[in-house]
Design goal:
The complex is a heterodimer of chains A (about 210) and B (about 140). By secondary structure, chain A is mainly beta. In chain A, about 5% of the residues lie in helices and about 60% in strands. Chains A and B meet through strand 9 of A and helix 2 and strand 1 of B.
Chain lengths: ~210, ~140
């Protein structure tokens, strides 16, 4: 459940970066594989996103992706989830659909990443609600800023990235949690690296390890 | 003469005996009085100490209760504030408009390549080349 929510948030926020000229992948047939590590750098799983189709042009583009999550032994722990992202005049609307037999609904403010980035840029704040099978998680983005730029190298290549620091407050069953993420975005690719911090201590890291 | 001596001796013995009894009686009374005085002093001291301890304990209890009430009030106020914050509608549109306005003074650098999506990839393995943006 926690892993699904984390993946959904990553997916939503990454896809939301597609506004206008996207810091995200809109190339049909591309597969992005992320490897997830825990705080001790042990592999805990993988997530794979494949851009299934891209339709439209200019400021009106629709991207459909298949997403799947695997454990450390590369065994699938979810069925394939289809996501559709519609871009209309720079506004991205993500529909993360659902896994087979699991209904997922996302509503609330749209958190978009502008088509241009610069260090020091203040990005949008807002509140979203993610409902999985009727269990709602409210996620409020309380901090969102481009804090740095960095060239990083992973197994997938070397990328010039802008680093976005985002802090969210979530509430599930009335239990409040605060999570901070640092995401390295590369134009035309999307998230290359995502570090997740809980109580100012690194909790997990996702790295783009395949881009083909 | 002999009889007179006997009488005088008897009287003397009687007086001496009587004095001794009186003295013994007085001594016992004095001893009891002293014991009572000591008891009263001890009781008084004990009472004073007990009163002092009770007073201190009451003061501490009062302070603890006051602190607890104050803390509860603070917690209630904090909870009310949190509840208020969580229930009130935040105007993110206005907040974001201000944030975007503040960004207008920023300078974009060469890393923010607007016309070419694959500019971000400095180098990539041949099998993972970055495709140009679909337009």
């Amino acid at each position: 459940m926690k892993r699904i929510i984390l993946f959904l948030l990553t997916t939503i926020l990454t896809f939301s970066a597609f506004a206008q000229r996207p810091y995200g992948c809109v190339t049909q047939g591309k597969t992005l594989e992320y490897t997830t590590y825990d705080a001790d750098d042990n592999v805990t799983g993988y997530s794979v996103t494949t851009v299934k189709s891209v339709t439209g042009s200019g400021s009106d583009i629709s991207v459909t992706c298949d997403n799947q999550i695997f454990d450390a032994g590369r065994n699938s722990i979810t069925s394939t989830m289809e996501s559709t992202i519609a871009y209309n005049n720079g506004e991205a609307t993500a529909n993360v659909g659902g896994y087979s037999g699991i209904n997922i609904d996302v509503s609330g403010d749209k958190i978009t990443l502008p088509s241009r980035l610069a260090v020091g840029m203040q990005l949008d704040l807002g509140k979203m609600t993610v409902s999985i099978e009727g269990i709602s998680t409210s996620v409020t983005v309380i901090e969102n800023e481009v804090i740095d730029r960095e060239e990083i190298t992973t197994d997938a290549g070397t990328f010039k990235c802008y680093v976005v620091k985002q802090t969210t407050e979530s509430r599930v069953f009335g239990i409040k949690g605060t999570t901070t993420t640092k995401t390295w975005y590369a134009r035309g690719v999307g998230a290359v690296k995502i570090e997740t911090y809980v109580k100012n201590r690194i909790n997990s890291t996702q790295i783009l390890t395949k881009y083909e | 003469m002999k009889r007179l001596l006997v009488i005088i001796l008897a009287v003397a013995v009687t007086f001496v005996t009587a004095d001794a009894q009186i003295l013994r009686s007085l001594g016992q009374k004095a001893k009891k009085a002293a014991e009572r005085a000591v008891e009263r002093t001890v009781e008084k001291k004990v009472e004073e100490k007990v009163e002092e301890h009770v007073s201190n304990a009451v003061d501490k209890a009062d302070k603890a209760i006051t602190d607890s009430i104050n803390k509860n009030n603070d917690d209630d106020e904090e909870e009310e504030e949190t509840t208020k914050k969580s229930t009130q509608k935040v105007d993110y549109a206005a907040i974001n408009a201000e944030r975007r306005a503040a960004n207008k003074s920023l300078k974009y650098d060469s890393w923010d390549i607007t016309g070419d999506d694959n500019g971000a990839a400095v180098s990539a393995p041949s099998s993972t080349s970055v495709a140009p943006q679909q337009s």
